[in-house]
Amino acid sequence: MRKGEVTKQHIINKSAELFNQKGYAGCSISEIMDATGLKKGGIYRFFSSKDEIALESFAYAVEMVGEHFTRAMEGNKTAIEKIISLFDVYADVVHHPPLRGGCPLLNTAVESDDTHPFLREQALAAMNGFLATIQSILSEGIENKELRPDIDRTSLASFIFANLEGSIMASKLEGDNQHVAFGKEHLFTYLRTLRIQN
Amino acid sequence: MRKGEVTKQHIINKSAELFNQKGYAGCSISEIMDATGLKKGGIYRFFSSKDEIALESFAYAVEMVGEHFTRAMEGNKTAIEKIISLFDVYADVVHHPPLRGGCPLLNTAVESDDTHPFLREQALAAMNGFLATIQSILSEGIENKELRPDIDRTSLASFIFANLEGSIMASKLEGDNQHVAFGKEHLFTYLRTLRIQN
């Protein structure tokens, strides 16, 4: 990487953390300057606006968390194990989330849905990508005769996703990882009722 | 109500809607002035700070949504029916949520968890109140021999709550009520596996 690219990535990394904790509206350019140790000109050399920093930071956050999900699923053979392992990425959301501040998709979705169309669109694309991943794991499970063929993959993927995000929200709010653990446990019990062999 | 109380309630109603759509950080006093038609002095006659408006608006929002939940449960006899009816409050979250902007608990939790200790505390109290309500419905279901006595009420209430909030988040983001409907459907199927008579 050239020096300019290193600096740009440094701004993105720090901004992603800041935005994920304080929100886009709650985070100013001067806070990004503090966090990066750069002057305003040093930041605007790479980005034309705060919105552009927000978009690139969110794209980075989604990619980074996506890699955590991919790694968590590795080594798991059944569809149910793969899906359940997604919860492990946020097992310690209180102290060690993949990105400080919790789930960037949850945070960005809730902040942007009524107010920031450009961010909302990116958050929606990220959600649809995640839903498609879950759906394809379910398809695999059906093909492998692990899961019942009459499962509605669209609605089940939505249910799995909602569980994960809702439990992250509750654990972050309480400062206690128990809700993510509860979500994992009940979802596991439910998914087992959808196996061909119960 | 005296005229002063009417004005104060008017500020709270409008601020609750604004905060629920734009967030606390994303909403300025001048927007509250615009929405209420009041001057700054007319607002600060009743509140000492924006934080105080935020706290009172959130308390109002939680109470108002709580009334919707209570009404939704009325007329339902079984614990499962009562729990499932909670989803009806947000069945049309895209166009007609109880409060514009979606679920105030979700919005406030996600915004405040890392940054606003005073709001976070109130959001946590609201979540715990809601969890306690769900737990007591489950207890009723166990006493009435509808639900299995070995159910862990704490973890099941958390799972139900996470589902509702996560599905609201997804529906709001996509602008499509389907996720709340999916959540309701799968939760209903799961809860039926926890009945004494399957």
Please summarize what this structure is.
Chain A is 69% helix and 0% strand. By secondary structure, the first copy, chain A, is mainly alpha-helical.
Verbal overview:
Two copies of one chain form a homodimer. With 198 residues, chain A is mainly α. Chain A has one domain: Tetracycline Repressor, domain 2. Helix content of chain A is 69%, strand content 0%. The mean pLDDT of chain A is 96. Chains A and B meet through helix 6, helix 7, helix 8 and helix 9 of A and helix 6, helix 7, helix 8 and helix 9 of B.
Keywords, please?
homodimer, 198 residues, mainly alpha, Tetracycline Repressor, domain 2, elongated
User: What quaternary form is this?
Assistant: homodimer
Biggest β-sheet strands, sense, barrel of chain A: none
User: How many domain units of chain A?
Assistant: 1
The CATH superfamily of chain A appears as Tetracycline Repressor, domain 2
CATH class of chain A: Mainly Alpha
Q: N-to-C terminal Cα separation of chain A, in Å? A: 53 Å
Biggest interface, CB < 8 A: A-B, 46 and 46 residues
Quickly count the helices of chain A: 9
Provide mean pLDDT of chain A, rounded: 96
CATH topology of chain A: Tetracycline Repressor, domain 2
- At CATH level 2, the architecture of chain A is Orthogonal Bundle
Tell how many strands the DSSP assignment of chain A holds. Answer: 0
Sheet/helix structural class of chain A: mainly alpha
Shape of chain A from CA axes?
elongated
Classify the beta-strand content of chain A into a percent band: under 5%
